[in-house]
Specification:
This protein has about 400 residues and is an alpha/beta fold. The protein has 17 helices and 14 strands. It has two domains: about 180 residues, 3-Deoxy-D-manno-octulosonic-acid transferase, N-terminal domain (Rossmann fold); about 180 residues, Rossmann fold, CATH 3.40.50. Helix 3 links the parallel strand 2 and strand 3.
Length: about 400
């Protein structure tokens, strides 16, 4: 907990302000991505709403500490009764939304006792969850009983909340991440200058790549030289890793440029290395084909970011902890590659056959489009609650 947390929160919160107040808690940056479209919907309908955002992790706080729609962004206090009373007295939440998980029972209990409506959004309850274990189950039974409404990601999750914990106020809303990738797809300001360089090429954007991914991508690119352009956005943008990637490109006889020092005379036959974070979701908008890294390591990275643009998505075999990646493969919107040969073969077919590329991309795009709307569902519950208040 930050040393001056309560002093800073008191200065920002202004407990005498009569505006409606919504407190959103997310464990880290990933969970907050699910909250962003919900916040956008609430602020669009009720711009007078004060949004308070708390994080458990440094990563979430560091990235979003200056979030423009927030009245205050802070580390979640240690979950003692004293801290809970103090936090709730400062924020005075009308609604408290917890994203996905990360439950702090004292803060939940005190918020509810002070009249806040409690919502659990993007809720997931997997078949073999630790929540079902003896002793732990009793704790979560109490925690879930505090929530007025739970919005589950899927029907299966909803059923588990109902059957395992006896919850009645559970609804299937879907995953707000689908709404967030659509929201982000509308912003291309930072890469607009790249458009003209790739307008006449078949561009492959390789995102969140690791060295194992690049070891397959580079020989495939060499084989398709003259027929394919490539942007590489590595997972690790540290100077050491960028230098390592540049050395690998040199060894393969490939020319390249860094995004941070983009040359005026750039041509699409040079590989563009993205050496800063936060651009990948926009870069996929330029692509005809996407490759998502991580599938030859622990698990594939975000496959929804490219899918929203209606382009074919490729990745390695480690994707079983990503339901959307598995679904994209099953529906035909994505292709799982196993080695250098299958990657080259898949790329060759997509480069040579624009119709196949379009058809596969349309499947990927439809997968995202058909799952939009979770954010509006959760936001509407928040708005209904706020609109019913008599301040």
């Amino acid at each position: 907990m930050r040393k001056n947390l309560f002093a800073e929160l008191e200065a920002a919160a202004n407990p005498t302000d009569s505006n409606p107040r919504v407190w959103i808690h997310a464990a880290s940056a990933g969970e907050f991505e699910q909250a962003r479209p919900i916040i956008a919907e609430v602020k669009r309908a009720r711009p007078d709403t004060l949004i308070f955002i708390s994080f458990q992790s440094d990563s979430g706080y560091t990235v979003y500490k200056n979030y423009p729609d927030a009245k205050a962004v802070f580390y979640h206090p240690v979950d003692t009764k004293k801290n809970a009373e103090r936090t709730v007295a400062l924020i005075k939440p009308d609604v408290l939304v917890v994203m996905r998980y990360d439950f702090w029972p004292n803060h939940l209990h005190v918020s509810k006792r002070h009249g806040a409506t409690l919502i659990l959004a993007a809720a997931v309850l997997q078949e073999h969850s630790n929540y079902f274990k003896p002793f732990i189950r009793q704790f979560y039974h109490y925690v879930f009983s505090l929530f007025d409404t739970i919005y589950a990601v899927s029907d299966e999750d909803r059923t588990r909340f109902e059957e395992r914990f006896g919850k009645e106020n559970v609804f299937t809303a879907g995953d707000p991440r689908f709404d967030q990738v659509l929201l982000r797809s509308h912003n291309m300001n930072r890469i607009s200058h790249l458009k003209k360089h790739y307008s006449e090429t078949t561009l492959l954007v390789a995102g969140s790549t690791w060295e194992k991914d690049e070891n397959l991508l580079l020989p495939a690119y060499v084989s398709l030289a003259g027929h394919l352009s490539m942007i590489i956005a590595p997972h690790d943008v540290s100077q050491n890793n960028i230098l390592r990637l540049e050395s690998d490109l040199d060894s393969a006889g490939l020319s390249f440029a860094r995004f941070s020092s983009f040359p005026d005379n750039f041509s699409a036959d040079r590989i563009l290395i993205i050496d800063s974070i936060g651009l990948l979701a926009e870069l996929y908008a330029l692509a005809k084909i996407a490759y998502v890294g991580g599938g030859f390591g622990i698990n594939v990275h975000n496959t929804l970011e490219p899918a929203v643009y209606g382009i074919p998505v490729l990745f390695g075999p480690k994707h079983h902890n990503s339901p959307e990646a598995e679904a994209l493969v099953e529906t035909g919107g994505a292709t799982e590659v196993h080695n250098a040969t299958s990657l080259l073969d898949t790329l060759q077919k997509l480069v040579d056959n624009p119709l196949k590329r379009t058809e596969q991309g349309a499947i990927a795009g439809s997968y995202v489009q058909n799952r939009l709307g979770a954010s509006k569902t959760v936001a509407q519950k928040i708005l209904d609650t706020l609109n019913s208040l008599t301040k």
